[in-house]
Design brief:
Layout: H1 2-28, H2 44-57, E1 62-66, H3 68-71, H4 78-85, E2 90-94, H5 100-108, E3 119-123, H6 135-152, E4 157-161, H7 173-185, E5 194-197, H8 223-241
Parallel strand pairs: 1-2, 1-3, 3-4, 4-5
Helix pairs in contact: 4-8, 5-6, 6-7
Length: 242
């Protein structure tokens, strides 16, 4: 009996220690860098598989990769897309609602395998803001994607766009977090293979406000917004294509 009672405190202490360690691990896990698929919308995997099929067909010189803002080139930005990218063998691999971890999963599951685009235009991270991830976590997530692109397509350049401004007022919490993320993402520009470009100010009024004339929901560009995007990016993209 004495031997058993002597072991009880040690066992209890060990359990507490393990519980504390597990709790600490949970709080330090960065979800933005853990590749995961999505179950909502229900066609998400099907869209991914469509991109994989498109990648296998090849012939892509400019690849756009991202979330709903990139995805929007298919509808609100369609006319602008045709004008600027219709003859560039461009492909749009944007899926609305994606966060960095979802793009990482897509890359892990064949979405760019065999591709050799001259440039990949990447913008991702806005869906990780707003309490989902902390600023350093988002930066780590975007950085992981850039590293994956460079690893999987070694001869392709990456045009990393700053996350576009969102919310009407410049002092909105998400707007502030996006500014903080972009400041750190700028450091990924290596002067050769990765180019960071911040065109966010092009969408804003002189006082920093965002208008519905450009982004009706203060997040997604309309046709005018996509025109601003294309015009602002054109010189850099053209130079990188050479």
């Amino acid at each position: 009996m004495k031997k058993t009672s002597a072991l009880l405190p040690v066992s209890f202490a060990s359990a507490l220690l393990l519980a504390a360690f597990a709790a600490r691990a949970d709080t330090t896990t960065n979800t933005a860098i853990i590749p995961v698929p999505r179950t909502n919308p229900t066609n998400w995997v099907a869209r991914h598989e469509g991109f994989v099929k498109q990648a296998r067909a090849g012939g892509i010189d400019v690849l756009f990769l991202g979330d709903s803002i990139t995805d929007g080139w298919r509808n609100r930005g369609q006319a602008v897309w045709q004008k600027y990218y219709g003859n560039l063998h461009a492909a749009n691999f944007g899926i609305g609602g994606d966060q960095t971890q979802h793009v990482l999963w897509r890359l892990d599951h064949g979405e760019v395998d065999g591709l050799k685009p001259k440039v990949t235009v990447l913008m991702i991270g806005t869906n990780n803001t707003g309490g989902r991830n902390k600023t350093p976590e988002i930066v780590e997530g975007v950085t992981a994607i850039v590293k994956e692109l460079r690893h999987r397509m070694k001869k392709s350049k990456v045009l990393l766009l700053a996350i576009f401004p969102r919310a009407e007022k410049p002092d909105a919490p998400q707007r502030q977090q996006i500014r903080e993320v972009n400041l750190q993402l700028a450091q990924l520009d290596d002067g050769k293979w990765v180019k960071f470009l911040d065109i966010g100010p092009k969408f804003l009024q002189p006082d920093g406000t965002l208008t519905r004339e450009i982004m009706p929901d203060f997040l997604h560009p309309n046709q005018k917004g996509y025109q601003i995007w294309a015009d602002a990016m054109e010189p850099t993209l053209t130079a990188m294509m050479k």
